[in-house]
Amino acid sequence: MGKSKLYFSKPSLTIAVQAANLKRMFPDSQVNLNHGVGLTWVGQLQPTPLSEKYTVQIKYRINKRPQVTVVEPKLQARNGDRLPHVFTGNELCLFRYAYYEWDATKIIADTIVPWASLWLFHYEIWRATGIWCGSKKDHPSKDEKKESEG
Questions:
Q1: pTM (2 decimals)?
Q2: CA distance 101 to 130
Q3: Which of 137, 130, 126 is CA-nearest to residue 47?
Q4: pLDDT of residue 4
Q5: Between residues 10 and 97, which one has the greater pLDDT?
């Protein structure tokens, strides 16, 4: 007799829950809600005490990948190189969505924001040395969840 498996899917966190957590963890930041289906967060991150302060923006729509960009200072390429680990428009690549490293059940303030700070830390090392110390994994070809292989 085979085992039967029941899969329970956790519901996505609401925009209000995400916004409340962002504001609680980063009280000096700004959170703007978009009719309960999205939010825009703007806050400052400083990866280390010796780092610059970066103004970062996160745009999030329920059940979509958060879009993270650095507003100020403008990210600079090195010696004409392309910025590492960014999507079109210099949107930061923080995780591999196709491999379920982040989903809408996770708190943005506990995941995306610290990952953005870590990305900025790696960016500062890359600017100084030319070596990217973050993930060396390639970007997935699409922003879609990996199809199950059967």
A1: 0.84
A2: 27
A3: 126
A4: 44
A5: 10
